[in-house]
Design brief:
Helices cover 68% and strands 0% of the residues. The chain has 183 residues and is mostly helical.
Length: 183
């Protein structure tokens, strides 16, 4: 039985990464005011999912035997495809962009960016459909996390900007000259 050494090493490395990720999520501070689902819930679920999928990859690479068209064992190595790796790097860059933006611009615009960028990257839809998908998806995920699950999400700079706009409007109102009453 031929074992795919690269897949075994990758599976083990990803299991280690999943454990480290789960431990990092477990180290997040817990709030006394927090409800049943805390800030660590989603990262822990992602760590568990990564661990399960990595374990499946590990089992698959150990126990699977590829078979060629003529019924004999096929060679384990496949042709290297640069496009697949470039697509994976593109998706990674979109994810990094989301992580860098979410604290600054807030959850709703950042998740709209993420959904729109992935839809645009995958292709097959018009701009109008991508924009509608991104906006409706952002509203859906905000509703799911903030309203249904009661998990606070980053607001970004919008509340501070709104306060500044309100303050400047109130100052402008105070500076308006008041005309004396007509005699």
């Amino acid at each position: 039985m031929a074992i795919a050494k690269k897949d075994v090493l990758l599976g083990v490395a990803l299991i280690v990464l999943a454990v480290i990720y789960w431990l990092g999520a477990d180290a997040l501070p817990r709030s006394i005011l927090g409800g049943g689902i805390g800030a660590d819930a989603l990262p822990k679920m992602l760590g568990i999912a990564l661990g399960i999928l990595s374990f499946i990859l590990l089992l698959q690479s150990v126990f699977a035997r590829p078979v060629a068209a003529d019924g004999e064992d096929a060679p384990q190595e496949q042709a290297f495809d640069h496009r697949t790796h470039l697509r994976a790097c593109g998706m990674l860059c979109i994810g990094i962009g989301y992580v860098l933006l979410v604290e600054t611009i807030g959850y709703i615009p950042a998740i709209a960016y993420l959904l729109g960028a992935v839809a645009l990257f995958v292709g097959g839809a018009s701009w109008r459909r991508i924009i509608v998908f991104a906006v409706l998806g952002a509203i859906f995920f905000w509703t799911l996390f903030v309203v249904v699950l009661d998990i606070r999400q980053p607001k970004g700079f919008w509340p501070e900007l709104w306060k500044q706009v309100q303050a400047s409007q109130s100052q402008a109102t105070l500076l308006l000259p008041v005309s004396p009453p007509a005699a």
